[in-house]
Design brief:
Distance between the termini: 32 Å
Function: Catalyzes the phosphorylation of riboflavin to FMN followed by the adenylation of FMN to FAD.
Protein name: Riboflavin biosynthesis protein
Largest sheet: 6 strands, parallel
Pfam family, one: Flavokinase
Number of helices: 9
CATH topology of the largest domain: Rossmann fold
CATH architecture of the largest domain: 3-Layer(aba) Sandwich
Structural class: alpha/beta
CATH class of the largest domain: Alpha Beta
Strand order of the largest sheet: 1-4-3-2-5-6
Keywords: ATP-binding, FAD, Flavoprotein, FMN, Kinase, Multifunctional enzyme, Nucleotide-binding, Nucleotidyltransferase, Transferase
GO molecular function: ATP binding; FMN adenylyltransferase activity; riboflavin kinase activity
CATH superfamily of the largest domain: HUPs
Strand content: 25-35%
Order of helices and strands: EEHEHHEHHEHEEEHHEEEEEEH
Length: 317
């Protein structure tokens, strides 16, 4: 996939581009439906499939106090867009100045003059331009004026639930991790750097853990999870705890992951933790011994769950 990090870097129009536009947080099943339609139109037009997105997210600029935690980091979002078979991704640096562009200006200056759009594919509720003044009716009117088509994709429902980034965030925070994965089309994941933890896992409890620093991503509901862990392209099984460790009375939440059958120093490494199934709520124990007994049960249950998946445990090669 060709990546254009700023629209001003685009020296000439693209080749008969079919375009979709959005934030695409999570790159979920609804987004995938848009991308599939864009690819279909690109084939018909013998042109390129194009995704236009924004960085930072508009909410981070316009209303940072109300900005949500995100399902995907910006780099991961682009990886997922590329994996979906899109030809070109255009990342527009979002600013207050950009937010002041009118709906007509956005279409004429960016979509028509710079990109040369032939077809625009949008969701059923798409809005655009200054103060979200533009709607699909205006987009179709401008399409007639400037010579591009407009195709809308209906809402996607799975299991009776509307697929949306907001719904997925709510499911993650409610601990309904499997349902979130269904709407995403893959397990929810958090990528972060291994940082110095509280040194209790291996020293005190006998189960070494990697402490992951979470930045901006949606935290899961506190509890214990069966997880997959990706490290430098290798996939391992694991058991993770997110929360406050009530047995020890921590005041700040942490994500601690025990990687099954793994030995080695992980400090400074980047891990991706994929949440497969929620095992239980956090519990307060009377001391380390009963906590260790429960951790053994959690690890056994995680192994059982992951054994039914295509997870390559380190010990089994």
């Amino acid at each position: 996939m060709e990546l254009i990090k700023n629209i001003t870097n685009l020296s000439k129009s693209l080749n008969n581009p079919a375009v979709t536009i959005g934030n695409f947080d999570g790159v979920h099943q609804g987004h995938q439906a848009l991308f599939a339609r864009v690819r279909e139109w690109a084939r018909k037009l013998r042109g390129q499939s194009v995704v236009i997105t924004f960085d930072p997210h508009p909410m981070q600029v316009l209303s940072p106090q109300n900005s949500p935690r995100f399902i995907t980091t910006a780099p991961r979002k682009l990886e997922l867009i590329a994996a979906s078979g899109i030809d070109v991704a255009v990342v527009i640096p979002f600013s207050r100045e950009f937010a002041r562009i009118s709906a007509h200006g956005f279409v004429k200056d960016l979509l028509v003059d710079r990109i040369g759009t032939r077809m625009i594919v949008v969701g059923y509720d798409y809005r655009f331009g200054r103060n979200r003044e533009g709607d699909i009716a205006l987009l179709k009117e401008l399409g007639t004026r400037y010579g591009f088509g407009v195709d809308t994709v209906s809402a996607i429902h799975l299991g009776g639930r509307l697929v949306s980034s907001t719904a997925i965030r709510n499911l993650i925070q409610d601990g309904r991790i499997h349902e979130a994965g269904t709407l995403l089309g893959r397990p929810y994941e958090i990528t972060g750097t291994v940082v110095q933890g509280r040194a209790r896992g291996g020293r005190l409890l006998g189960f070494p853990t990697a402490n992951i620093k979470i930045v901006d991503q949606v935290p899961p509901k506190p509890g214990v999870y069966a997880v997959e862990v990706e490290l430098e392209g290798q996939i391992f099984g694991g058991a993770a705890n997110f929360g406050y460790n009530p047995t020890f009375g921590d005041s700040e939440p942490s994500l601690e992951v025990h990687i099954l059958d793994f030995t080695g120093d992980l400090y400074g490494s980047t891990l991706t933790v994929r949440f497969i199934e929620r095992l239980r709520d956090e519990m307060k124990f009377t001391g380390p011994e009963p906590l260790m007994a429960q951790i053994r049960k959690d690890i056994s249950r995680a192994r059982e769950i992951l054994s039914g998946k295509d997870v390559r445990m380190a010990a089994s090669g």
